[in-house]
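Below is a filled-in request sheet from our internal design queue. Each sheet records the structural input a requester submitted and the sequence that came back. We keep these sheets so that new team members can see what a complete request looks like end to end.

REQUESTER: design group, bay 2
PRIORITY: normal
MODE: inverse folding
CHAIN LENGTH: 438
BACKBONE (tokenized):
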């Protein structure tokens, strides 16, 4: 989903917040709900209940139930040769492949769905993706921070850093989200300064820093043209994060498979993107190795002309797979819609449904994060979607390969309050479902 690059930049055809819109978590409450197993509040009874319902959920969503089934044996669309280190050898999707999400110029224009049947819908059954084999070095990178059965859970927007969001939802918030996604913002990082929104924050933080700007190219990036800026960004991130003990997740070139950012990737520059990403990884490992590098796609490709898996740089160049996931294209109104959505693929056969994205993460030995997600009030008020997201996170929680490491609910007040759950919400049923599920 699209959003503005920073508080200093103009909006970029996006339903999202600008750079300084930030989130974080202040655990000001000790309240916990038996339905939550987010980090620090795992409930053995809940875990047992989730495990008992796993088989039924897997069958309902069409997810394999045999942990011995390898990624190569999974449906063809779940794994391509793109997961290999050499993505240049991957087969391309034909030029006439149809995109299944609306383009940036028509985003959010669909008719609103009735909320009447949504609030009465039964909660969808939890869906678990099969457990992976013993995780390798990449897949086990977060297990110390995010033990199996737990996940980091939080939001972006007002109330996160000061603790009011956590108080409203009734459970600690253990990760926030923010953006520094233009060429100036990625080096200035104002929100991390003393007095900035996250200046005193010592919970986990997901920060999207963009990559390249207007008039720049991935080929130039691969050749080192922007090394000075990238080095400055990483150096300042390390310095401003300082001695904080919580993990910092860097979302570099987020949603590159869409057509709304300067760093968008199409089939003509996907190989240069891979080379540039690997180069950025080298810089990150040199300058700020303690940070976690996040490869984050939009839930489906828009205008790219190829399968985004062909641009995956290789697991050794990534710490966390991620997907931004909003209730739209198509809209999920009921529990049945939710179950159907989980295994959807996009116009190129790449993962679109959340279970498919988790399958891909498992196939490359990495955990999955959902750094942006919410309902869409212009489409309707779906408690079923919110409940489904919570159940999915809980059932697949953990920092290992093929597990959910963290989620950040997008609670930014923009686009007429389209995405808000906390605050002046237009989705009261969804807000109530969120408080119950998290």
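RETURNED SEQUENCE:
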């Amino acid at each position: 989903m699209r959003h503005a690059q920073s508080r200093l930049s103009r909006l970029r055809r996006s339903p999202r917040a600008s750079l300084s819109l930030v989130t974080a978590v202040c655990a000001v409450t000790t309240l916990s709900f038996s339905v939550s197993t987010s980090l620090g509040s795992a409930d053995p009874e809940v875990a047992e209940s989730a495990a008992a319902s796993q088989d039924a959920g897997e069958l309902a969503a069409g997810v394999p139930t045999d942990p011995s089934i390898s990624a190569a044996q999974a449906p063809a669309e779940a794994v391509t040769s793109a997961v290999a280190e050499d993505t240049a050898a991957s087969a391309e999707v034909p030029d006439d492949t149809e995109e299944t999400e609306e383009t940036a110029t028509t985003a959010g224009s669909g008719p609103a769905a009735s909320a009447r049947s949504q609030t009465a819908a039964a909660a969808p059954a939890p869906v678990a993706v099969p457990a992976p084999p013993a995780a390798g070095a990449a897949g086990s990178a977060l297990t110390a921070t995010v033990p199996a059965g737990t996940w980091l859970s939080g939001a972006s927007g007002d109330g996160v850093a000061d603790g009011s969001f956590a108080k409203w939802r009734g459970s600690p918030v253990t990760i926030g989200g923010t953006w520094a996604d233009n060429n100036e913002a990625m080096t200035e990082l104002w929100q991390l300064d003393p007095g900035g929104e996250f200046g005193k924050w010592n919970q986990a933080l997901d920060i999207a820093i963009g990559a390249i700007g207007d008039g720049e190219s991935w080929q130039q990036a691969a050749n080192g043209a922007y090394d000075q800026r990238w080095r400055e960004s990483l150096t300042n991130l390390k310095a401003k994060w300082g001695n904080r003990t919580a993990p910092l997740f860097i979302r570099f070139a987020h949603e590159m498979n869409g057509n709304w950012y300067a760093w968008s990737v199409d089939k003509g520059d996907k190989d240069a993107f891979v080379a540039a990403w690997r180069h950025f990884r080298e810089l990150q490992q040199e300058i700020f190795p303690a940070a976690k590098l996040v490869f984050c796609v939009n839930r489906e490709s828009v205008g790219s002309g190829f399968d985004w898996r062909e641009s995956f740089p290789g697991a050794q160049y990534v710490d966390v797979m991620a997907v931004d996931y909003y209730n739209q294209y198509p809209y999920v109104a009921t529990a049945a819609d939710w179950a159907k959505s989980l295994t959807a693929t996009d116009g190129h056969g790449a993962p679109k449904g959340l279970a498919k994205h988790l399958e891909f993460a498992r196939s490359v030995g990495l955990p999955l994060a959902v750094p942006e997600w919410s309902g869409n009030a212009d489409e309707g008020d779906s408690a079923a979607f919110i409940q489904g997201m919570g159940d999915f996170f809980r059932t697949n929680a953990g920092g290992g390969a093929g597990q959910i490491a963290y989620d950040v609910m997008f609670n930014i007040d923009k686009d007429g309050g389209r995405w808000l759950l906390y605050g002046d919400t237009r989705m009261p049923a969804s807000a109530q479902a969120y408080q119950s599920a998290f």
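SHEET NOTES:
- The CA atoms of residues 13 and 106 lie 9 Å apart.
- The chain is about 25% helix and 10% strand.
FILED BY: M.R.
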